[in-house]
């Protein structure tokens, strides 16, 4: 079985092709990455398919990463007209992501052969069974769950991929033990996992909640939105758009949110942006240590989590009290590869594990394609 993966994020689009054998062993055939802003969907997909066909590969299924599945989609599904309409409706909850995913699905439907199965895998699915204390807001039913206002959680494919790899590396810990996973890319999130089950996640009703991100504010008092509406004479939708696209590292620093530039900048605003980013992450780690009752491991992933040692070091600074201590040399040497970073005297494992979201997409495609009709 040949599976094409389409992973559209807020900053990039990643295309992949995988051959799945009879024992579910997977071999990557091809992959490429493009800036999201420059992606011409049909043209990129057509060119990618042409290269596969030239190598005598034809996809049997296309697996699409979709950020928001709402309350309805709690597992991967085959895409039909009704599913596509529901995904479009959910765009109001994930305006940076779902419209893009829908447009990639429409492009794939246009350029692929009619017999190719189109499958949606959801970032919210991994967190669908969060405990009520983590999934509910303190709102009455008529304002909360009855209207679908709850904490959905996002980056589920990445957090599950980290967990699965961790489980293989640490078979001595049932279900992976007590784990804190950080996905630090353009969007950022942190999750608390216990024995393979999510207990909490920083992102909530939308991908805007939680950690400071490249262009997103993260946690903010809800009263700020109407206050800014009045002061700036803008609508709520316009304020939310700005919190998504003009805040975070980029907004606070006045720069583009690139960490290499921020870390080398003498500008006090750049220093504040980095400090706030790391402080917020450290604060969440502390709260999740309380949720989990301690921790067996901390995993970093994503573009920043994998490639910026200074950020990892600053996030974990001063956490020796919790048994969390980095080996400075190992941390500095790790840029983009899997590595163990804890100092020998540290009681908590600290590791970089690149999240293989494509493996999760491929597994989802296989599960849906092989399900009994």
Fraction of residues in H or I helices? 25-40%
Beta-strand percent range: 15-25%
CATH topology of the largest domain: Nucleotidyltransferase, domain 5
- Low-confidence segments: none
The main sheet comes to: 6 strands, mixed
Strand arrangement, largest sheet? Answer: 3-2-1-4-6-5
Structural class, please?
Answer: alpha/beta
* Outline type: globular
CATH architecture of the largest domain: 2-Layer Sandwich
| CATH level-four homologous superfamily name of the largest domain | ATPase, nucleotide binding domain
- Give the ordered list of helices and strands: EEEHEEHHEHHEEEHHHHHEHHHEEH
How many beta-strand segments?
12
The value of Rg in angstroms is: 21 Å
What top-tier CATH class of the largest domain fits best? Alpha Beta
What is the terminal-to-terminal distance? 18 Å
Helical region count? 14
Count of distinct structural domains: 2
Mean pLDDT: 94
Protein model, in words:
With 373 residues, the protein is α/β, with parallel strands linked by helices. It has 2 domains: 2-122, Nucleotidyltransferase, domain 5 (2-Layer Sandwich), CATH 3.30.420; 172-352, Nucleotidyltransferase, domain 5 (2-Layer Sandwich). Helices cover 38% and strands 19% of the residues. The chain contains 14 helices and 12 strands. It has helices spanning 41-54, 81-89, 98-111, 132-135, 156-169, 224-232, 236-245, 248-253, 259-264, 268-292, 302-307, 309-315, 328-333, 357-369; strands spanning 2-8, 12-20, 26-35, 61-66, 77-78, 117-122, 178-184, 188-194, 197-201, 297-301, 339-340, 349-352. The strands form 2 sheets. Strands 3-2-1-4-6-5 form a 6-stranded mixed beta sheet, with helices on both faces. Strand 1 and strand 2 form a beta hairpin. Helix 1 packs across helix 3 (98-111) and helix 5 crosses helix 14. The protein is globular, with a radius of gyration of 21 Å.
